[in-house]
Design a protein that fits this description.
Blueprint (H helix, E strand, L loop, with lengths): L1 H23 L9 E4 L3 E3 L10 H7 L3 E4 L6 E5 H8 L12 E6 L3 H18 L12 E4 L12 E10 L4 E9 L7 E7 L5 H13 L16 H5 L7 E3 L4 E8 L2 E9 L3 E2 L3 E5 L6 E8 L2 E3 L3
Amino acid sequence: MRFLAWTVIVVLIAGALLLARAADTNTTMALQDRALVADARITLADLLPAHAPALLRARAHALDLGRAPQPGAVRALQHDWLQDQLRDSPFADLLIPERVVVERLSSPSHENVLARLRTAVVEYLERYLEKGSWLDSAYFDWPAILPDIPSTSSFRVLASQWDPRPRALRLRVGCVPRQACLPLYVSVYFARHSDVEITRGLARLIAERPPSSFVVANAARPESSATKRAPRKSAPVLARSGTLASMTVESGGVRILIRVVCLQNGVQGQIIRVRNPESKRILRAKVIGSAQVRGPV
């Protein structure tokens, strides 16, 4: 009788352990329709509800669902796409909503880079504009993607361009040291009712810093009398709008070639706009040869 009693106890304990393990690995639960991530990659664990068992969450960490959005942005994961990702995995029984919206939290490093970029732009503008008075009438358009640069690096404005129609100052900003990142582009928009001091400050900035590396929009260059008497022979067009070109990109001693679509005609040494057909981003590049450009600039 004692042996039978011990057998019953052992069977009950084993059954309880099996039930607990089954509950801990249960995959018949629904994913969240909205998730917050902190890392650069999305895993299935990020999409599980808060009550998901610890063992299931640990196993879900191994299933990579691709790149997370930029901090402050969102990425939508559609039902059919998620279903394909889970089809041949142990998580095929998870209930998937029509769409899962993934938002990435701003990391301290991202906020630090943005703060340094803002400091460089504000310090540059305050050389020409009355300190503090222009901030209320200005709107900053920061780059969507910021580089991961060391805390010892900083930013410096390299060139400026005034676009009168939207009253925007386009700034090309580089890293210090230069090898830390490729140039970034920041736009500062000023309200139509900006006061006289701001207008005068912008005029001084444009006069002292001519846009040598930018193509100024809506700005007509006056012709001198000498130019009218003896017009220069036009240079041959090496890059034509709508055609493909090879763009050379150099960073940290590494040189790569990518295919871009020219959005403007260009002669030797001219800065033109090009589009990356994969990312759809519009960049500025310098014409260096027939269907060859170097950038971004």
